[in-house]
Amino acid sequence: MKRVRRRSLWQEAQRFLAGGVNSPVRAFQAVGEEPLFVSRARGAYLFDERGRRYIDYIQGWGPAILGHAHPAVMAAIRQQLQQGLAFGLPTAVETALAREIAAALPSIEQLRFTSSGTEACMSAIRLARGVTGRTKIVKFEGGYHGHGDGFLVKAGSGMATFGLASSAGVPKAVADETIVLPYNNVPVVHEALERLGSSVACVIVEPVAANMGVVAPEPGFLSMLRQVTKQQQILLIFDEVITGFRLAYGGAQTVFKVRPDLTILGKIIGGGLPCGAFGGPRALMSRLAPTGDVYQAGTLSGHPLAMAAGLATLRWLKAHPPYALLAARTRRLVDGLRRIAADSKMPVQVQASGSLWTAFFARRPVTGWATARQASTERYAQWFRCLRREGVLLPPSQFEACFVGVAHTDGLVDATMHAARAAFRAMA
Ligand SMILES: *Cc1c(COP(=O)(O)O)cnc(C)c1O
Question: Is the pLDDT of residue 1 over 60?
Fold first, then answer.
């Protein structure tokens, strides 16, 4: 026992967990520091095992839009917990959450829940291939759709963070079925989709890219995708795992008024518990087993605790729509950071969409992976470390989004700007 105690938590984790973590970005490798170990989190604050408090912009990578441990969500989980855990049989709460989601997202009549966003993306692709009888999929550089084999080609998030263009262990035959196009490049993408046409089952896109840092779609990009996919009978899939219930209650598809064929959800819809979902019109979704011939299943899919947490989150969001306030707070933070960066003569592009933002250490605006990759990851790492010392926790990578939630008060936004000023000063 004594020996265990003398080792740090990080050393101990590295003995028993691969790379010390259960998801790569958590290792803080890209920011040159040891990861922090979380003891607890509440609202906008996160506390590490050393008792340090941080204003948290990771927010569980998106689910905690209401802030950590929101009372309404905690109460719903506690109540559901009384009934037991996993039954592997239908529960009413699954339908209740499905009804809520279908009412919110114009493209969804029916959905199926999974245990993660990864699983939902993999399943949606299988459905698209089953429905169209085609095999190729199109994704975008810097786009992240979980770690399914076919998605790990020029992917964002951890792959971008660690500079991996592809992953070992993905058969060439699988990677060859994935076509990667440049996000936001209207003429190139339009031409490619017209040319590839009938070989492509689906185009999958983050309507607002948030896994190479935050990159909003150029005007006309999403509507071009809709028009050309319709013309070529390719299914358009919006991966709204981050943007769903975050940019607006109805997701990016209501903000940009583009209706995809299939939508993928995760993060917020599980209220902080493991959850994903994919959905679309009944005609497509009924192709899934048991009514159809596309197989998809999951022992813990639609887990009652996740359903209860997600439902409580969505009900709160519907009853107290925070979106205008979140966007205004984020705008204030972003404007402030731009001013502070300019005062410090630091070449920074602070980009935002709704309550998502990223500070790119770049000279020019970031519009896709070609420009994102030019950002200085060293500068970002330095900024991350300075801010951490000031009690502000950013994602430990240049290529991830920062999340503002309802718990980030104006006072905390001010405190963040104060910390940013000190950080830029320390970096100069
Ligand atoms: C997080 C994320 C996923 C994967 O979800 P997991 O629950 O981590 O498997 C897929 N797509 C997008 C856009 C994401 O941000």
Answer: no
- Among 292, 319, 346, the domain boundary falls at 319
| Catalytic annotation, residues | 144, 239, 267
Does 233 share its domain with 305?
yes
Average pLDDT, integer, range 46-62: 97
End-to-end CA distance of the chain: 46
Which of 113, 118, 246 has most ligand 1 atoms within 8 Å of its beta carbon, as the pocket-test mutant?
A: 118
Please tell me if the CB atom of residue 206 comes closer than 6 angstroms to any atom of ligand 1.
yes
Which residue's CA is the nearest one to ligand 1's atom 13?
241
Q: What is the pLDDT of residues 82-129, one digit of tens each?
A: 999 999 999 999 999 999 999 999 999 999 999 999 999 999 999 999
- CATH code of the domain covering residue 273: 3.40.640.10
Whether 161 shows a pLDDT value over 90: the answer reads: no
CB–CB of 109/102 below 8 Å?
A: yes
Pocket test for ligand 1, best of 152, 208, 242 (most atoms within 8 A of CB): 242
Report d(CA 252, CA 242) in Å as an integer. 10
Q: Which residue has the tokens 């992917």?
A: 155
Whether residues 315 and 397 share a domain: the answer is no
Q: Are 238 and 264 in contact (CB under 8 A)?
A: yes
What's this model's pTM, rounded to 2 decimal places?
0.97
- In a shared domain, residues 234 and 189: yes
Sequence-ordered strand ranges (E) for 281-385:
349-353, 356-360
**What number does the ligand 1 atom closest to the CA of 157 have?**
15
Q: Which atom of ligand 1 is nearest to the CA of 239?
A: 13
Query: Which domain, by its residues, includes 277?
Result: 71-319
Tell me, yes or no, whether 100 and 178 share the same domain.
Answer: yes
